[in-house]
Fold:
Amino acid sequence: MKLLLKILFIVFLVWMSVGIYLINTKHEKAQIVMGLGVLFLSFLFMPIFIYHRYKNGKYKKYIINDDKLRNAFKQQGKG
Structure:
C-alpha cells in the first residue's frame, strides 16, 4: 500500500507539472489535463491515503468522547 501511494503521488506530481507546462504554453487541452489531474488526485489518491493512514485505528486518540471530557473537567477543577 505504501509503495502504491508513493507511485501515485509521483504520477500526480508529474501530471500536474505537465498540466502547468501546457497552461504556460497555451495548449488547447491544458485545462482538461489539469482538471483530470485534480479530479483523480481528490477522488483516487486522497481516499487511498486516508484509508492507509487510519486503517489501524490511530485516529482513536484524537476523538473526543464523554469520558475524555469528564476527565478533562475533573483535572481542570483540581488545578
